Amino acid sequence: MISTASSTAEMITQGKLHINEENVEDKESGRMQCCGWLLVTVSFILAVLTCPLTIFLCVKIVKEYERAVIFRLGQIADRKPKGPGLFMILPCTDTFVKVDLRTVSFDIPPQEILTKDSVTVSVDGVVYFRIYCPISAVTKVSNAHSSTRLLAQTTLRNVLGTKNLAELLSDREGISISMQESLDEATDQWGIKVERVEIKDVKLPQQLQRAMAAEAEASREARAKIIAAEGEMKASRALKEASVVMAEAPSALQLRYLQTLNSIAAEKNSTIIFPLPIDMLQSFMQRK
């Protein structure tokens, strides 16, 4: 019973301390808000009194593809970016950061990557991205462009490290889509949208290039021999069918004989051929 009462007293004491701390924090935040409003009011009054001189400091312009994130006493004013067009700031209490919303591209420098089948290759690429949330791009990352570049390099190494050399050479589109999804997921909290990732060049070692060239040449020679053999087989079948047709029609053999003589006579050569008339061979063909 004594221990229960002591624990209850401790809980009550801790609750009172917590309430006191919250009250102190509320009072401090209230004082800070009062001071902030006082400074903003004083700055506004000074800007109005010195209007002809401070008009160039108060009026700012952002272009159609830009947005301005305004900080008033360290806090984002209105919780939304300004622009495009004209907007007003207070010279003493406000600062602003311009953010470009256009699509930006950058090259990924060549990366030495060890593939899944232990082949070292050098791969580079290009990334296209844009900022869709200016507030997140300013408040959640110190340098959005530099951070995206570094993340693209590490993502390229991580993704290609899980691929074989054959997949790397044949499935570039799939690798690009995988990299885009990984980058887009990682940069979404920074207010950045990765629109496209492309693999530009894959450089192989010289020894591997020679080996692949020899393999490709051997494959082409084997394919050429197969095609030549298939052509000879088809030609022999055609000759067999032609011989059967000529055997059934002797006049066809006579026409073929005359066509051969015509082609020989058309050639300009010094050899004179006296062909044997085919009628003299008719008796031998009948005996056979």
From TrEMBL:
It holds the Pfam family Band_7. It comes from the Eukaryota. The chain crosses the membrane at residues 37-62. It is found in: Membrane. Keywords: Membrane, Transmembrane, Transmembrane helix. SUPFAM superfamilies: Band 7/SPFH domain (SSF117892). This is Band 7 domain-containing protein. It comes from Amphiprion ocellaris (Clown anemonefish).
